[in-house]
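Input for the complex:
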Amino acid sequence: MKLDAKVPQGDLATKWKTYRGSMPLVAPNNKRRLDVIVVGTGLAGASAAATMGELGYNVKCFTFHDSPRRAHSIAAQGGINAAKNYQNDGDSVYRLFYDTVKGGDYRSREANVHRLAEASVEIIDQAVAQGVPFAREYGGLLANRSFGGVQVSRTFYARGQTGQQLLLGAYQSLSRQISNGNVKMYNRHEMLDLVKIDGKARGIIARNLLTGELERHAAHCVVLATGGYGNVFYLSTNAMGSNASAAWRVVKRGACFANPCYTQIHPTCIPQSGEYQSKLTLMSESLRNDGRVWVPKKKEDAAAIREGKKTGLDIAEGDRDYYLERRYPAFGNLVPRDVASRAAKIACDEGNGIVPTGKGVYLDFSSAIQRYGKSQAFSKGMTNADDKTIIALGTKVIEEKYGNLFEMYEKITGENPYVMPMKIYPAVHYTMGGLWVDYHLETNVPGLFSLGEANFSDHGANRLGASALMQGLADGYFVIPYTIGTFLSNEIRTPSFDPDAPEFKAAEADVRKRLQNFLDIKGTQSVESFHRRLGKIMWEYCGMARNAEGLKKGRQLIKELREEFYKDLFVPGTQDEFNPELEKAARVADFIELGELFAVDALERNESCGGHFREEYKTEDGEALRRDEEYAYVAAWEWQDVNSEPVLHKEELEFKDIELKTRSYK
Amino acid sequence: MALANMNLTLKVWRQSNNKAKGNFETHKVVANEHMSFLEMLDVLNEQLIQEQKTPVAFEHDCREGICGACSMVINGQPHGPQRGTTTCQLHMRSFKDGDTIVVEPFRAKAFPVIKDLVVDRSAFDRIIQSGGYISVNTGQAVDGNTLPIEKDLSSQAFDAATCIGCGACVAACPNASAMLFTSAKVSHLNLLPQGAIEAEQRVLSMVNQMDEEGFGMCSNVTACEAECPKEISVTNIARMNRQFIGASLKSDKMA
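Predicted:
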């Protein structure tokens, strides 16, 4: 199999425009006769389903949630990037493109990233028109803030709930198409298999989660916008339901999975507090605009804090190590996520962590409170304001900017972050890897498309902050509605497919057998307990720092876990009813296989880049060491079965417009 | 730091399906104060699975207070005792060792029970589908900054838009009214200039749909505001009533 990225010819800056001007179109009368299945209703899925509905395609949309509005895009906090240059600070489409390729450590596909930067501008306009209440300045114009890895202010935001507001915008557009009859919505339906006819994706098997009934849904093509696989680590900032099953099921039907080892560990999450913990909570990257990251310089201070004998407030300014500002003076606390996460790990590994587990650092707002307090006092003409007044004024400013995040922190930890510095630690947050797609966002299975976090294409080995919302919406609103036409323009004579065709019946039978298999094991251990153990293996051996020996061991442990899973799993109930344990069992079974491929990929990539840090490959001062000569490619894996080695297909990455450099934020 | 164990007695509503008659089941659980309420239920479910029994079904997803999936009534209050907090963000430090906690589903005619603590809230989707959007197709928008919006107005719209669609307002209301939910969306969109064009039609259709779904009338109890995890104000209800009356008086807009 040869992977063809199908990148159009011509200058990088005009490729997308030329493509749109020359691609084959589907006439409105034909659109009505073409069926499109969209799986997932996050930013990518909802915006794609809504837009294709508006265009006149016959759309069926699926979500396992009780409502499309619950998709995990809703939890994105910080913002969405766009090259609007409203701040007149030197931003442009090219700069956003450049920052994204550099931020991704030169492991993304240039043409896709440039298109993303172009679409970013339109997304903001679209969202404003839908009524998304972005933050505004007093003059009524849109406000911006900065995110990690960039030196301009291009992030649009809606308090700390940008994902919620953008998703509600897409959900409302989707709701409008549902009410118009252009989109048929299937809530509480989970895709459990892909159906191919003559090699093309022509439908899915979905389980009605309320009744357990398996349903056969046919279409001319299938679009997956089913999110990332961060929950392979069990503990992550993903929602409990976020899973990789739709993506993994299509891998089982021949789609390639690209770069599974590129995982983003987000530097600012609330540290784990106990074994019972079910998920980790993110504290938005936007906090690093004003928060300073530090640990005590002296190990004895750190130990005293861990034992509860001291707090961060007891450590004098001179005894604090603001390690990001020290190591990366140019970007300071706003270095990209992978860099900030590794630096936190190093500080804690050296014994300077400040929570009982040793895995935590401070994120401190006291300097910002002072700075804002003084500026407020000055503008109010208070020349002799005392310290208390300054702190009160500064606290108010911080509260306006990050109030809901501070409140969330206090609810979870029981500590007041306006007074006591926040305690944070890196956690799994986002997965850059995903289904391999070409420029059309089509996988190697014809007629099967993948959008948003579910595909691999735009973020390389590391995603910059506020770029996930941008990509999800770019793919859904502005890319797939065009590129799907290239496929469907050849299908206008294809009649609708019969869901009673033998291919559908066979796929349904496979699903039924697989589900029954989980129920028939009748072992003693819960799905959750296996998932937890998988997560521990992944974090230990495929986490923030990896090495060849550990990856081999990790893979072996995953294989053993899989065997135990199929011998000793206990799933109550039957498949013909609402059975959340059975749903989880199918998802965890897929995570176990994906986890193994993850280890294989991480072992194969003998370099460090972005979120993939191999201990064997680092510079003298501990930074990631890329090996462009050997590894400037996308690793797209073809999965055989659990007893065979996955097959590697390489897509060489070409950088025509950007010179490959060692990433430096110093 | 070792954490003290909390010994709790849970009285949990069990109902195998919509037709079945439900009942309270009593269980003992050992928790600690750092656990979230849902993590405490995870502990209970792990216990039940160990005994090869059916775990308690409850809805949850993001576990950070934003998706709106978690529901349940805890000791008589939707989302439990802490103000402005969803069940997933409620932590066990809000309870004491030895407490008995009663857990039941949101109860409303328009939210039929599916299983145990899981209810069907699809009526909310249908209310949004009836008009909770601005009619703009992808690609039709003008530059975002061509329409300056007063900061305070935008902020007011945001306060309404922050609704997570959990349904606590309905569960809290003695009439099981969905006025807070519906009015929050009406306010979010009708306050903004982008939404003003369809404002009258929107309020008429959404209120109409709300009634069709079987939600009750509002009698100004304001328990909805008190229990709303996002602290959405009943001012939105007043605003919606005013807009509804205004729009109704123009007979050509009657739905």
